[in-house]
Write a structure and sequence with these properties.
The protein is α/β, with parallel strands linked by helices. The chain has six helices and 15 strands. The model has no long low-confidence stretch (mean pLDDT about 80).
Amino acid sequence: MFKRLHEDIDSVMRRDPAARSRVAVFLTYPGLHAILAYRAAHALWVRDWRTLAVFLSYLARIVTGIEIHPGARIGRRFFIDHGTGVVIGETAEIGQDVTLYQGVTLGGTTLDPGKRHPTLGDGVIVGAGAKVLGPFTVGANARIGSNAVVVKEVPPGVTVVGIPARVVAPRDRTEQPKFVAYGTPCEDLPDPVARALRGLMNEVTHLRRRVEELETTHAGDASPLDDLSPTDGEEKIAAETAASSRGDC
């Protein structure tokens, strides 16, 4: 137990630059307190002390503002930063070295009694306010940006943002996965919607240029009637029709 506690505190020290000492982390970090309470509640849950397990989880939620169902399965070095508003459902599965920020929901979208909640692979980072909804897998070392809504499987090592979440940064196989706060890199991220709009604007510009070229090329082919007013044109057509009916040349 003490070895696991020491490991949890060390993981906080590595991932939170605001952590000044291990004592402060142990005394003041609600994410750590929620993890400790979850482990006790989970131990009761697997021994079929279900009511007591849920009650302990309820007390931990009151104290920490973090709700972790005792039936969830959570790996080592799990870190919840800030923590308020985090909700982890009953059938959620979380790998090693996962980081969640405040307001994250690992929720279900079905009433079926089986697997309803997501599975997070090792090293996943989920930014503040993100919602991961459904019984799918988020691949190892994936990053979910703040306020994203994830409703389908996420490949390993990519970054997803938006509603619904879309891949904006593919996996870089040349670099080792590194920790990124809130799951969102600081450099400019490509926006697939903006990219599509830019493509459309480029196409419209090309078509407009082509139309202008065609108008310039065929400007000399205009009919002589184009230089006449509508009334003059009608009179000329009427005169030509009358002359042809009389057999005039």
